[in-house]
Amino acid sequence: MTLTDSLVDFFLETRKHTENICAPLEIEDYVVQPIIDVSPPKWHLGHTTWFFEEFILKPHFKGYTIFDEDFSFVFNSYYETVGKRVVRSDRGNLSRPSVESVYAYRTHVTQAVKNLFSSTQSQELNDLLEIGIHHEKQHQELLLTDIKFILGNNPLLPAYSNSFKEHPVQNEAQEWITMDEGIYEIGHNSDAFCYDNELGRHKVYLHSFQISNNLISNQEYITFIEAGGYKKFDLWHAEGWDWINQNKISAPLYWHHIDGTWYNYTLGGLQKITLEAPVTHISYFEAFAFAQWKECRLATEFEWEAAQAFLSWGQRWEWTESAYLPYPNYKKADGALGEYNGKFMVNQKVLRGGSVATPISHTRHTYRNFFQTNLRWQYTGLRLAK
Amino acid sequence: MTLTDSLVDFFLETRKHTENICAPLEIEDYVVQPIIDVSPPKWHLGHTTWFFEEFILKPHFKGYTIFDEDFSFVFNSYYETVGKRVVRSDRGNLSRPSVESVYAYRTHVTQAVKNLFSSTQSQELNDLLEIGIHHEKQHQELLLTDIKFILGNNPLLPAYSNSFKEHPVQNEAQEWITMDEGIYEIGHNSDAFCYDNELGRHKVYLHSFQISNNLISNQEYITFIEAGGYKKFDLWHAEGWDWINQNKISAPLYWHHIDGTWYNYTLGGLQKITLEAPVTHISYFEAFAFAQWKECRLATEFEWEAAQAFLSWGQRWEWTESAYLPYPNYKKADGALGEYNGKFMVNQKVLRGGSVATPISHTRHTYRNFFQTNLRWQYTGLRLAK
Amino acid sequence: MTLTDSLVDFFLETRKHTENICAPLEIEDYVVQPIIDVSPPKWHLGHTTWFFEEFILKPHFKGYTIFDEDFSFVFNSYYETVGKRVVRSDRGNLSRPSVESVYAYRTHVTQAVKNLFSSTQSQELNDLLEIGIHHEKQHQELLLTDIKFILGNNPLLPAYSNSFKEHPVQNEAQEWITMDEGIYEIGHNSDAFCYDNELGRHKVYLHSFQISNNLISNQEYITFIEAGGYKKFDLWHAEGWDWINQNKISAPLYWHHIDGTWYNYTLGGLQKITLEAPVTHISYFEAFAFAQWKECRLATEFEWEAAQAFLSWGQRWEWTESAYLPYPNYKKADGALGEYNGKFMVNQKVLRGGSVATPISHTRHTYRNFFQTNLRWQYTGLRLAK
Amino acid sequence: MTLTDSLVDFFLETRKHTENICAPLEIEDYVVQPIIDVSPPKWHLGHTTWFFEEFILKPHFKGYTIFDEDFSFVFNSYYETVGKRVVRSDRGNLSRPSVESVYAYRTHVTQAVKNLFSSTQSQELNDLLEIGIHHEKQHQELLLTDIKFILGNNPLLPAYSNSFKEHPVQNEAQEWITMDEGIYEIGHNSDAFCYDNELGRHKVYLHSFQISNNLISNQEYITFIEAGGYKKFDLWHAEGWDWINQNKISAPLYWHHIDGTWYNYTLGGLQKITLEAPVTHISYFEAFAFAQWKECRLATEFEWEAAQAFLSWGQRWEWTESAYLPYPNYKKADGALGEYNGKFMVNQKVLRGGSVATPISHTRHTYRNFFQTNLRWQYTGLRLAK
């Protein structure tokens, strides 16, 4: 089996898995966009397909038949290089193309990619295919969290599936792991795939610090709520305080207080909170305020990467104190793919780890996720440092 | 055949017709809400059904089984009396209830109404059924214009159906009909159904005026555009001038200028403008500016009603100069049905006539339609007076 | 004394009176604009002056020296014909021209007008001067109500003057005046000055109605508040209900509830409410809701004008049920002055009467004032009809 | 002379200097607030005074007579601990207290502080006085840049003073200074005054880098504009690209392109751009895009501090690539003064250096200024690194 063969298998498995995620949906669920940060599942299906058509098939497959000229306009996300596109806030206004034709588009492109790679092999094509696969894996995570948002904000609170485990229980006792002062190396360091924002392996100097082995649990977070954490301005950033007050926020996303008991919407429907599970669906502002209340802080992304071997992680994306910035000597890729990461490196925070929704092959300790400080629809969580 | 029997037949025909309107739709088309004024077709199907359940079945059908307790929350429109409801701007965020379950809801309620009337007959029930039927007929018109908006704002411009004639040609030569000064009687004056806002038959004094036998045609409207009508501030209300500039409006809704030719989106897809057809999809602001440009004016609703017997009308809702206000001695109905009309009697304009989308049995010369001055998604048109 | 002489005297008296209104102000009070509907006093002083310079001196005074070329940009209000202008929302951002230079501008223009009329006399000039005087008188009223808003929304609640009587007590017992059904003549009907919107004397047919001799008092309005009037949605227009809820409105403008007692800010400072005085600073929405609560209604402007001779009026601008629309045969003036009234004839309500802030020579029974339905900073009030 | 004596002298000099900055103003200039980021000069005068009254006189001066109880409400800025306050966006709506009474307030408080320190001396009081002085010096800089904004956005473009040199010419040839890889110490390290955000002296590891001896000049920035820098999306952050397009930004703040020549508003009025002076009034987004265009980058704040001894700085606040974050072991102060810095440590960028508007005694190489990425009204500039 050649490298290309195994890459094509990986490609086919990825394409299939995306569709499996959508299997429990009604057609109606594919269409809506309740907030601007959430895209309709139909759009994810089309956009990940467009990526292969635009960057692989159009430039490299002589004689390729474009599925539909209009889809380029419909399924481009933010690539200014590639031309005009539907504005993001309008994605939920599009009833067409139909779900059926989006699936036909997927089949057409998947088959064409397979055909292309059976006849042509090159490092450049392999690299493009690999980034396309990882791009689709990123969207698999978004697909799941967007579906959760769509169903979890529906007044009927319909379940998605009972087989998805979102709230694993942590059993270990809390401990502080002490890390020594000194120079640490940060960044990607192997031949395996990574994004450009992980490159630029470099040294940082860290002062001695302690980091918790555990994520903060729902039980601990309820204690924070009951202690009035959402009402004490001195725990919050000025911007966070405005945000919770303007949006009347007093608990994590998906939490409901019913007759004195805390419930949360899960992919299996509305359920009592699992007290021993790590808290999730909190913003950076909330993570910071909780840490202030505990007289601790969040780790920086460098501290996290230095300590990660001693931590159990992978259930929650963990907010760090680090702003999303380029590593020293960061270079963005040429052309449209250069728009992938660099242009978002302002006013966002880095998250480290990975979540229950992250495809396993997409998780690694150098991965840098990033979001605005008020976003909560991912499986975000919180680990203390001091 | 009793009165009730024929009313039940009318009811069944109406229920069926609503579903026929939706027959050409894909499931996806039932879900979206591109602007706040447009509701998802699924919502219209559910809301017209809820109306019968809420006002007839719940209070009058002993032993009636409510289809789903949550639907009352989902499908209430603006009846504060009846309880909480999904805010209007969120209607397009609801993927559930599914289209299939909304149709099941329709069948359940239609059957229950039929059963109720086969066992119970009363004037009160007949009156409620009649208002429910007319309510659904109103929504049939909205359903069609909302579908047009949903498809006509999709970048793929999909056709709805080729059998719907939106743009009938006017063949008569333009003439001015002169009406004498004097006292005229205005308002509903028979035993047939009407809404409360048409009641309060009363006298008005009209000065002599002239009104055109014809609606303004697309050809005439193009002349207005080409004469710079959208760029001459003195033709417009201050509020209209701000509106066209802020929204970059320079032609009726659905018009596209492609390579020097005017096209418009129709329910049959994108087509060249039919020059001899009456212009449509214009706001009150545009109707007013056109009339100013012609050194004419719009008729008042009283002038229109006085002259209507001499006019050919029914293709376009015609903007009048009249504000939507109560007639002398107007009384609103008691209870929730009192919310039907009266609470909208401010800052809207009256339209008279009826359009190609209006169910025939829903058209009468005393009917008072009303919209905000900037709305264009109905089949609105324009007739000059002086 | 010629007609022109007496007009010039009237002009000089008017110019002087405007300045007298500002006499109690601090320089700082001339500058601010707390909401878009309120203009800084400095702006009123300059704008009324600009009107004479723009429409009389520039076109008719050969050799006139323009005071400052830039003032045309600063002090134009909405005349599109005349060129660019500071947007309305920016008026309060302008610290310059200074108050001192605005007064110098006034003196320069007042003197030039005086000089012009001492050497040149014509009907056209007289007409322009007369409209300029009435324009300034309109602004005198706005000046006073804008000053009240500026000081009444300052946390220090400073007094303007103790000599201004805003809250005259009504002593007459309430009575219903009955008006007969029939034809009435409406509109201006003499050689005296009026605005174009009062012209087009015409007949209307009125059905029999009753109108109250009295305005609604503060005492009656407090009863409405205490009866939960602001919490009963069925009393309100849908748009009014949204407005009070979004803006958290539960009493007239300037009212403060302190330790169980109602106070209001007056030009003399914060004072206990005078219970026997007519209520003021209410929106149309509030006037309508009060009338609904009393199972009455507001009069139309035609009813008001027909009945006015039997009413004591002039303390409060009285909201009517009539929308602000052109009379039959209304014609707007040519040129920039044609922008005076006509372009505002949409989505506003007519008020009749005149208030404690209206210059006496500016009050007449055919005068049509008009405002949007949510505005409250004028001395608006409420009279019932049925 | 004791330490306290010299501190009191420093205090008196600072108080005087603030008033000197305002000497060229008209009273009207003290009042307005054209954008939310700019405060009225009157407010700065009052707020710096309130700081001494609130944190020194009220708690520490037995028998102190509060000047006016209401001023605490008017002049508090963001200290939630201290109570309610005028919302920031309303500062420009306050005509009262008058400028005269604000000066009386200043005199009252200045004298009271002087009296207190003549009778009572303690380390705690000295520390409070010192932070109050530095707080006022910070506001001196804002006062000047706010005045520039108020006058520079007035359509009359009035001059403030001809004696203020904003645009010093750089004469040195451009050179790259090379800094070695290694460990550097960052943060305040003496007994002199500093803010809490400079503390937590700590080590960082820097890779080798080069930094320019010069700031980017107006000439170089014009070349960027003429090369289409504002039209190339790939130079910009996604958020920056949206910002320039929504706000139609195509040059630094205060720049005017008149008949083919670039002018800028200066405190001396409108003048031709000084080509050899360092560019100023640019946002972080613009600084970043310029650096991208040059295929360079901005320095981090750590690189800047490490290299600063080799740089000539102090004319412009220099945007760095660093987000404003706490140093390791940062601790915020207790009580209200703890609100001084920490709560702003999110979604802002660090600026280093100091500007022509910064009081000299307020400039030091560890000083960390910070602003949102779109702000331009400070004397911000740009230095390249690579």
Helix content of chain A: 25-40%
- The neighbouring-strand order within the major sheet of chain A is 11-10-9-12
CATH class of the largest domain in chain A: Alpha Beta
List unreliable stretches of 5+ residues of chain A.
Answer: none
Mean pLDDT of chain A equals 94
Oligomer: homotetramer
Structural class of chain A: alpha+beta
* SSE string of chain A: HHHHHEEEEHHEEEHEHEEEEE
Largest sheet of chain A: 4 strands, mixed
Number of helices, counting only DSSP H or I runs of 4 residues or more of chain A: 9
Spatial extent as radius of gyration of chain A: 22 Å
Q: How much of the sequence of chain A is in beta strands? A: 5-15%
Which shape of chain A, going by the Cα principal axes? globular
Number of strands of chain A: 13
What is the CATH T-level topology of the largest domain in chain A? Answer: paralog of FGE (formylglycine-generating enzyme)
- What is the largest interface, and how many residues per chain? A-D, 37 and 37 residues
Count of all domains of chain A = 2
CATH superfamily of the largest domain in chain A, by name, is paralog of FGE (formylglycine-generating enzyme)
Measure the end-to-end span of chain A: 49 Å
CATH architecture of the largest domain in chain A: Alpha-Beta Complex
Pathway (chains A, B, C, D): Amino-acid biosynthesis; ergothioneine biosynthesis
Protein name (chains A, B, C, D): Ergothioneine biosynthesis protein EgtB
Domain Sulfatase-modifying factor enzyme-like (chains A, B, C, D): 173-307
InterPro entries (chains A, B, C, D): CTDL_fold, DinB-like, EgtB, Sulfatase_Mod_Factor_Kinase, SUMF_dom, SUMF_sf
